Amino acid sequence: MFSSVVILAACLQSYVSALPATNQLKSQEVVADFNNVPGIPPLIGDLIGDLFPINTYKGLKYSGFDLGNSPLGSPPLDLFSIDLDAPLAVSRFLLDDILKTPPSVSSTYPGSDVHCFDLHELEFSCMTTTTTIPGVLVKCTLVFTPYIGEKRLAPQVATFTPVPGSEIPVLNSKRSEQQLVTFGEQFKGITSFVITMESAAMTALAPLGLDIGVPSALTMMGMDNLRYTLYMNN
User: Fold this and answer.
1) In whole angstroms, how far apart are CA 171 and each of 102, 126, 146, 174?
2) So which residues are the signal peptide here (predicted)?
3) Which of 22, 37, 83, 222 could cross-link to 4 by cystine, CB 3.0-4.6 Å?
């Protein structure tokens, strides 16, 4: 665990006047599994997006994320070709453009008593968001960028690659595991992080020698089991 001096040194880079005295901060270890998101029934969710926004959950504000689930609730059907613990956070539009901003997670929102947080790890995967429910698994490279206030820190890149033969959702198909990401020191004492997509490709046709890129607007990421430490008022 960080000392009080190190915690304040990270948070103070953008919130000098807003933070309380050192001895007024406390820490809390959190696992966000999205199994009890306020305001959303536990057996309802979607794999298309924009229907069930997560908003605030376990001390952090989720922008651009919806609650994802199997069409019939939890646990997922055998049709899913990825091992996941539904429900989970899902997001589309992983590129910053005129119409959409990329998804983000933040400790700064009205009524928050969280000054900053350490992001330790999370799991993610990617699939298409076309007419198939669940979608076809795709290889994707995501960029996780931490911030302290408006200050952008060094990003971290991670790639999800489906197990060959697991991409297309059919009964008794091979199954992929979600990609675990363990974050570096630059994700300690942050106030937010943003997720963007570097690339996505459909690997289901790789045996035919075809490498087909997938537009970000047709790609959805699923994110689960975030582990982090909150620093807040005593």
Assistant:
1) 33, 19, 39, 9
2) 1-18
3) 22
